[in-house]
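User: Before I run my own analysis I want an independent prediction to cross-check against. Here's the chain; please return only the structure tokens and, at the end, one sentence I can use as a sanity check.
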Amino acid sequence: MKNKLLLTTAIAGLMVVGGVAQAETKVSGNLEQTFTAVSDDASNGAASTSGLGAEYNIGLSSSAELDNGLTAKFGFNLESNNAAAAADVHFLTIGNDAMSVSIARDNGNNLSSTGIPHISDTASTVVNGAYHNLGIGASDGHNDDHIRADINGLGGTLTLRYVPTDGGTGGSSTPAVEAENSAYDVIYRGSLGVEGLSVVAGMHKVDGTGTAVDTKLNKYSVAYNFGQFAAGVEIQKSEDADATTATAKDEYDSKSASITFAVNDKLSVGYARTETEFTNNGVKDADEEKIDMIGIGYSLGGVAIDVNYAMVENFNNGSTDRDVLQIRTIQKF
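Assistant: Structure tokens:
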């Protein structure tokens, strides 16, 4: 009996390491398989291309009630995108229903995702054109290692994020020299207390040092869901250092509008329009990128299938017209 008691005590002791009690762990993940076909304007001498790829994620998350009454949530995610799996998401969040503080990467409120309705991927992701590249040099800070505070209220969340090293993703915790500049975000995402309304408003700024200019990204979107329909509009602008002159600016101005319709619980359709202007060192480019995209999404229960077809005029503010077909399957567990 004494040996059994000792064994029970030893097993119980394994549940606490360094004074930290283990919590229940949840496993989640997804698999996305995508076929993409691209056809460029033949007058530019570009050949059509197509390819099949996959992205898969697996994550672990948990939570614990702390002695001071606050809740701690923590976890990480491994991602593979046609390459070896690597650390992607990580987070430690401590707080309550009113406010929380996090140390994280690729987690929390962000400006990378659109605030207007869409079927599966957005037009910018499908096309990978100028709108998708608005964040060059001023990309959203949530993808970097950061510290943030989230304040809940007004039907949504206000995020204040500080990025010590812009572009920092898992480097040494004690670097000898800071290779990049710091950045910060101010973002609100929510309904403002109005049922059916969705609002995203925020800015991201990277501080320039020496002769470098500050880089900025601003996004504002409003969407509304009314029954089976949802519609929204969005504007986005970025200012970045010119590629050839450090003190000059390149500017992208983009406007988007979209509408979706849920035919039934299984089938949804949508249409999106995006226009992006480019100003190079103060001179407006004559080629304005325009994207029209239609999308269809169908759920088979455990598997979803999405089809998007985009027609692009002046791809990436150049002279090439482009058609893109994307077919994607999504599985989650």
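Sanity check: The chain has a mean pLDDT of 83.
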